[in-house]
Specification:
Layout: H1 7-17, H2 24-36, H3 39-46, H4 50-64, E1 69-72, E2 75-78, H5 80-107, E3 113-118, H6 120-137, E4 142-146, H7 153-158, E5 164-168, E6 176-180, E7 184-185, E8 187-190, E9 201-203, E10 211-214, H8 216-227, E11 234-238, H9 245-250, E12 256-258, H10 260-268, E13 272-277, E14 281-282, E15 284-289, H11 295-306
Parallel strand pairs: 3-4, 3-5, 9-13, 10-11
Antiparallel strand pairs: 1-2, 5-15, 6-15, 7-14, 8-12, 8-13
Helix pairs in contact: 1-5, 2-3, 2-4, 2-5, 6-11
Length: 312
Amino acid sequence: MSVSESPETESKAREILGGTDIERRHLVYFLAVADNGSFTAAAKAIHVAQPSLSQAIHALEAEVGAPLFRRGRTGVVMTSAGEALVGPARLALRALGVAATAVSNVQELRDGRLDIVAQPTLAADPLAELVGRFRKRYPGVNVRIGVPDGGDVVDLVSAGTYEIGLTLGPVATRDLGALALPAEDVSIAFGPGSSRLPGDVLSIQELAQIPLIVDPRVHASVMSMLAAHGVETLVAVETFHREAIVPLLLAGAGAALLLPRSAERAKQQGAVVCRIQPTLQRHTVLVYRKQDLTAAGTALVRMATANLPVAE
């Protein structure tokens, strides 16, 4: 009978085992005696020395505060206390077995959950590709990706709300581990029919005269990159719908600054993609909890590390 089908047994377990410090080994020995009818047969069945088994039963009786067996010439007979303990003991061992299996599944990445927080633009790229590879290798692990909601990614990971975070660098990570992911070059894309040619090189100063389609959530980081070169952006369209940026530029609403994957998709749809000199780059940092990283978190960090270019 399953645990959910035996509320009386659960009640008995709480009554007899509640508040005690019973070892799993003691319950195994107790049930061996109950099932085999004697200490000698029980010791042989579970491959332990009879004195050790007897000592364990005495310790268990002391813990529950009642004798569990009456010794006789032909074996042992359970007392009423012993009979009351059989069901809860089996229930407790079954629950411990389930718990051990659950822990093992999590540790061996057959089960579990991984909590990640990322700024919206980083959740799509590069996090999506990294999580995709992780899930293909560990399909039993559920991944939850959250947004900072106005908070700081590093603070959320440091507080334990999330185990891993992706943010734009540089960052002060304090007690966290930090992994710099490969820098990504920013390109500028124009709609079909542009006078620009694919692969043209534009100076950063030219960007000041080009109307741009931007996502306000990430435009601040773009502005800071350009400001370092004394360039102010000219915003044509603001949209919080990140997936609308490429359709808008293809429709002629303006140009857009894109990262490699987005630039490639836009190019395949007819956009004209040009390079920028000097190169603008986005630097992403993966931060993680060093002290209590789970098996799933460790696997993701190792996967991200393995994908880094080898220094020459």
